[in-house]
Amino acid sequence: MGTLVHYAIGQNWRFSNPDHYRNLEAQEVMFPFDPDERQSIMQEVGELLWRYEALLGKGLPWPRDEDYPEFPMALPLGGTIWQGVIDRLYRVGDRWILEDYKTDREIEPSRYHFQLAVYREAIRQAWGVDPEVRLVYLRFGEIVPVGRGALEGALREVDGR
C-alpha cells in the first residue's frame, strides 16, 4: 500500500483519474493479492492519496519552481555510506522543502529524525542549501515540521559532531 501511494505521489498521479487508478492497480506489487484484497488495498490507497491531494496548494505548496520527487541520495557519515530516496525535494521561491510521506497509523516524528537528518545533510553538502524538513502523515492529513536542532542531534549520535 505504501509503495503504491509513494509511486502515485512521485508521478503526480491523481486517484480520481481513471487511467492513474488503473495504472496503480496494475503495478507488480499487486500481483500476489486476490481481487478482494486488491479492492481493499486500492480503497486505502485512494483515501491516503485523497488526503495528500487535499493538502496541495494549502499546507503543501503547489505549483513549485523546482520539483524532485523520489530523489536518490548518498552520504558518507560515521564510517558508513548512507543511501536512500528522498520522497520529495522542491523549491518555491527561495524556500527549499524536503518532505517525507508516511502512511503510519501513529504520529511519531522522532522515529524518523535520523533518516531525515541524513537526507538534509546530503542536500546541504551536495547543493549547498538547507531545506526545511517536514513529515507528511497521510492518514491524518498532517504536516509535521522537524526542527534543525532535532536533526542535528540525530546526526551527532552517529557522527560524534
Strand and helix map with partners:
Elements: H1 2-10, H2 18-25, H3 35-55, E1 66-77, E2 80-92, E3 95-102, H4 113-127, E4 132-137, E5 142-146, H5 148-159
Parallel strand pairs: 3-4
Antiparallel strand pairs: 1-2, 2-3, 4-5
Helix pairs in contact: 1-3, 4-5
Question: What does it look like?
Answer:
There is one protein chain. The relative contact order is 0.14. The protein starts with a helix and ends with a helix. It is built from five helices and five strands. Strands 1-2-3-4-5 form a five-stranded mixed beta sheet. It is 40% helix and 27% strand. Strand 3, helix 4 (113-127) and strand 4 (132-137) form a beta-alpha-beta unit. Helix 1 (2-10) crosses helix 3 and helix 4 (113-127) crosses helix 5 (148-159). It is α+β, with helices and mostly antiparallel strands and 161 residues long. The model has no long low-confidence stretch (mean pLDDT 95). The protein has two domains: 2-55, no CATH class; 66-159, Lambda Exonuclease, Chain A (Alpha-Beta Complex).
According to CATH, what is the class of the largest domain? Alpha Beta
Number of helical runs? 5
The major sheet is characterized as: 5 strands, mixed
Low-confidence stretches: none
Order of helices and strands: HHHEEEHEEH
Q: Which characteristics define this entry?
A:
Lambda Exonuclease, Chain A, 5 helices, single chain, 161 residues, alpha+beta, 40% helix, 2 domains, five-stranded mixed sheet
